[in-house]
Each structure stands twice: as C-alpha cells, then as structure tokens.
C-alpha cells in the first residue's frame, strides 16, 4: 500500500503511476476544503504552543460537543468535558483498548471488519470475530451470532471486555437499523460489555435506507448502563481530511474512563495547528451544512458511476450500500469466469491471483483477507475519487480480471454473462443470499463488455 502511495497516478504528470482505490480517503471535496481554510482560518499565536493541554483545546472540544450533538442527534446534549481529542480515530481506539482491557483480553467484532482494528488494539488485546454465515450481519438475527461467538469465547477461557462496531459499516457501507443497535446495546448490558461505536462515517450517508442512528441518539438509560457506551468520530472521512489527524473519543457517562485516559493523552496530542483549523470549520454551521450536503451528493454520484461500471462488466457486488466511500465487490467470482480452475485451486489461490493481476496493472484494492471476510474473494473498491482517477482505476481493474495474474493467461473465450442465480457464497448482503447481489443478468453482458 505504501509503495502505491509513493507513486500516485496523474493523467498529466504521472500517467504510468499506480491508481489507489484501496485506501479509504475521500478526495471529492479537497478543493472546497482547501479554499475555505485558506480564506477563513485566521491563526492565533497560540497555535505554536501546547494550548490547553493534550486533551484538545477547550474551543475545539466545545465545537465538537455542539457539532456532534446536532449532527448525531444525541439523546442528551454533549459537553466539552465528555470529549477527548486525539490525533486520529485510530489513536482513540487504541486508548480505549488500553483502558478497558488487560493483556490477553479481547473485544468482540463482527465479520467482515476493518482489519486495522487488530493493529490498533495494541498487541496484547485480541479480537473475537463473530461469523454470520447466511445471516445479514446488520440484522436482528445477527445479534444472536454475536452472543454465540461471545459464549464460545468464554467457554474457552477468553475474557471479552467489549463489542466494537463500525457504524456505518466498513466495508459494507451500510447503517445499522435502530432496532439492531437497541438489541446490541441490550446484549452488551446483559453481559456487561462496553459498546464502542466507531462512527467515523456518520455524516457520509448519501441515501437514507435506513437513516443513520448514533448509539448516542438512543435512550441509553432504558437499555444499558450508559457508562458502558463510547463513540469515536473524526474529520478524516466525513470531511475528507485524513491528513489533519484529528479524532475524538466521546464518553458522556464514564468519568472514570476519561480520567484514566487523561494520564496517557500526551501520546496522542493533536497538533495545535490542526486543532485551530478544525475548530473554525466546525463552528461555521452554514459552511458545514453546505459542505456535507454537497459531499453526500458527490458520493452518491460516484457510487452510481462505479456500480454502473460493475454491472456493465458483469462484476457482482453487495447490494444496499448507502453510506461511506466504498463498494464491496466479488472480484474473485468475476476472475473465475475468465480463468476457470478446479474447485481446490479456486479455494486456495483465487484471491492471490486477483491481487497479482491488480498489482501487475498498477491498481490497488483492499482484499477480503484485510477484513477477515467470510468470503475471501471480496475486494473493497473506494469510489470517492475524481472521475478521471476513478475511471482509470476501474479500467485497470477490469483489464486485470481479463488478463489474469502473473503466469495466468486470459481465457480464449468471452466470459459467460453473470446470472442472478449464481452459486456465490456472499453472506454480507442486506437481503441475505444470491438475490442480494447486483448483477446485470437482464443485460446479458459479459466480463469482456
């Protein structure tokens, strides 16, 4: 990944560079954010100091409290004291793991999940993955799958301290229905687990189906000990500002946790310069409302362009995406249509072949094993790019599927059209099962189209 980022494609200055559709960055609003900051941010002399300390400036924490109370529609208004600013959401997650779990203890996560979680929890904290089979992982029946995974872990002597959610989901790009969040909160209360909700894509919901619900929008007192509930948020995704490195932990009802984390906050000190910039942005209600609305419009258009491409070229993908920056596509299935193999070879080599083919064509996508996917042939395609870059990346991806990986020749015959009844083991879909895959059977197009 890092080698790809060192050699970025540009239509004019570097046409032979690599196209990165794998890293979850939002490039759709860069000019607007740059222009706003250039025009409106007046820096105080305090930006060269430590300001108010490692928890973030009081101005920023007040701005975050007001902004998140409004946009997350919290059941209770947030206060600056409820918030700890960190240099990115990853640092906030790492701090939560340090404070809530002892060495060898674990957090429950649902598959597929953002693979970097295993790196952010510190080496001594483990993950207990919940598998769902044919159950939609964002549905009410999935709550039972979480409970079963928890009970199995306990039977094996594993101490589980919390449940980690990414809401909206990464990599599925969907929101948890309110009733599912209620059931998960009740499950956590039953077993006294901390409920940690990473809501870094909360404001990147571009189609209301269903609408986004923050766990802080629930009446927690009726569901769970509120001290067990914590939210992570940052500007990286919703504002397309990964490089600013500003995130936060919101824990309104657990002063003991906030006190514990204040002792290590110096290790995640956000830059005073970034602190000042984010404060100005979040205080400007007119700008943030217009910016977020335009961002949602552009995300919806980019998603439509990407899925139209996938449909026209017979590449199946998980239906129902309505949030975040990506689509979850089965490139392994599409690859096999042009490069048939034995069942044993398909099971053991197809994802590696796809990665080799993508590498050869200088396009990077994150593969299913990065997300501990139950279907290893899945790949996450990030579509939040300018149209020319997105189009070039999809073109290269298509060519990689046609021509194969290193030492694998392309098939002599056109690949057969995708059939809606294809035998595809994809559990991570909203309607559960093969009918939930978007496939252009009626168009009768092949992967060679």
From TrEMBL:
InterPro entries, A to Z? Aminotransferase_I/II_large (IPR004839), Ethylene_sulfur-biosynth (IPR050478), NHTrfase_class1_PyrdxlP-BS (IPR004838), PyrdxlP-dep_Trfase (IPR015424), PyrdxlP-dep_Trfase_major (IPR015421), PyrdxlP-dep_Trfase_small (IPR015422)
* PROSITE patterns, per the entry: AA_TRANSFER_CLASS_1
In its UniProt record, which GO terms are filed under biological process?
A: amino acid metabolic process
GO MF entries: pyridoxal phosphate binding; transaminase activity
Ranges for domain Aminotransferase class I/classII large come to 41-396
Superkingdom classification of source:
Eukaryota
List the keywords (alphabetical): Pyridoxal phosphate, Transferase
Concerning its family, UniProt says: Belongs to the class-I pyridoxal-phosphate-dependent aminotransferase family.
Full protein name? Pyridoxal phosphate-dependent transferase
* Annotated organism of origin: Dichotomopilus funicola
